[in-house]
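help with this.
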Amino acid sequence: MSPSAEFPPGVFTTPRRASSYAGIWHAKDDKGLSCSIHLSSVASLDLYKASVSKCSNESLSQVNMWRFEGGKVTLFSRGTEIARLEGAEASLAGTLSRSGAPLRMTR
């Protein structure tokens, strides 16, 4: 089957590169707390740099790195996993690692 037949025009597929997720995201937890998370395309060893602003959620406020692997985006703080999400280029959903609380990120 040719690639064009597998994914007809207008059908969006999950990106397969980290650079597809780089940029500014609006994160919102289950309590309605939100912040901006910038996922950089600048690599640092096997992770990419990240920064946050206006974050009330204690876990998310410490995010400083991220990774794209196996179709999932994982957020880290000093090597500790903070959250794992999956989805498309404009909308990600997942959970905070420590509490299991839901987390959404949109562009």
